[in-house]
Amino acid sequence: MIRSRSSWVSDPGQAGGEQSLCRFGIPGSPERVRGDLSATLFFSDPDLYDGGDLMIRGEFARHRVKLPAGHLVLYSARTLHQVTAVTRGIRMRLSSGSRA
Questions:
Q1: How far is Cα 7 from Cα 81, in angstroms, rounded to an integer?
Q2: Nearest to 55 by CA among 9, 5, 21, 88
Q3: Which end of the chain has less Cβ packing within 10 Å, N or C?
Q4: Could you tell me the end-to-end alpha-carbon distance of the chain, in angstroms, rounded to an integer?
Q5: By the 8 A CB rule, do 20 and 34 touch?
C-alpha cells in the first residue's frame, strides 16, 4: 500500500525552518514514521518572486532548488529541507510525500 500526503501552499513572506515533510501515523499506535519520498511541484516562475529557495540538505552537500513553473523535484523524505523567506511576490507550490 502506498500512502500519500499533499499540501498546496502559497508562501508570501514566509520562511520555513528545517523539517521533515512527510510523517505518517502507525495504525493503532501514537508513533509516527517518516515517509520515503518527498516532492515539490512549482507553480510560480522564479522571476515572479525573490527568496523562496528550497534548500535540501544531502549527505555531502546542501542543494538550492528554484525551478520554473511546472517543474517537479523529488528527494528522499529522510533528508532535511527548508524554504528561505519570500521577500517579493508569492511562491506557489504543491508539496507531497509518500510512504510505500
A1: 16
A2: 21
A3: N
A4: 6
A5: yes
Q: In the beta sheet, which residues pair with residue 65?
A: 54
Residue 5: partners with Cβ closer than 8 Å, 6 or more residues away: 22, 24, 35, 96, 97, 98
Its domain, for residue 7, covers 3-99
The pLDDT value given to residue 47: 95
Selected residue with higher pLDDT from 15 and 83: 83
Counting the structural domains of the chain, the total is: 1
Strand 50-51 versus strand 86-88 pairing type: antiparallel
pLDDT band at 92 (very low <50, low <70, confident <90, very high): confident
Q: Which position has the grid cell 493503532?
A: 28
Report the sign of the C-alpha dihedral through residues 13, 79, 40, 64, in that order.
Answer: positive
Render pLDDT for 31-90 as a digit per residue (tens, 0 to 9): 766 667 888 899 999 999 999 899 988 778 889 999 999 999 988 877 888 888 888 988
